[in-house]
Specification:
By secondary structure, this protein is α+β, with helices and mostly antiparallel strands. It has three helices and seven strands, in the order E-H-H-E-E-E-E-E-E-H. It is about 30% helix and about 40% strand.
Length: about 140
């Protein structure tokens, strides 16, 4: 698994308790709504498989799959994604931190890549994911 190279970290504060943010990432019905995904299957445990079909603007359907590397309820997910042409999983870390009163959650998405182009593409996609998550949680 890639541990050195080009990385990014995006941090946002969500006006939502950590438990609701966790549910959005780990419940298939919720994940599908904010991530623009269909056919969502999430086995949220270390080594558990996940899959979905991302529907991008214009209607293109992109099948995605992988497995969970690390799961710490309400705190951290390390998600591996299968990438065509690579033996190693591309890893995304999702860290959640509750504020002192429990009403807000700081979320950080981070990844490391071998090329600046892959990093930039993924960072753009992660910002889109966080935009969708923020909008979804605002309506919960």
């Amino acid at each position: 698994m890639t541990t050195a190279g080009f990385d990014y970290a995006i941090t946002r504060t969500l006006e939502t308790p950590t438990e609701q943010v966790w549910a959005a990432w780990t419940r298939p019905d919720q994940y599908g709504q904010w991530a623009n995904a269909e056919e969502v299957s999430l086995d949220v445990r270390p080594g558990g498989a996940w899959s979905s079909v991302m529907v991008i603007p214009g209607g293109t359907r992109v099948p995605l799959s992988g497995r969970y590397i690390e799961v710490v309820e309400n705190k951290r997910l390390v998600i591996g994604m299968s990438v065509p042409g690579r033996e190693e999983l591309a890893l995304m870390t999702v860290d959640l931190t509750a504020d002192s009163d429990g009403d807000r959650t700081r979320i950080t998405l981070s990844q490391t890549f071998e090329s600046v182009e892959d990093r930039d593409r993924s960072e753009y996609g992660s910002n889109m994911l966080l935009d969708g998550l923020t909008a979804f949680l605002a309506g919960v």
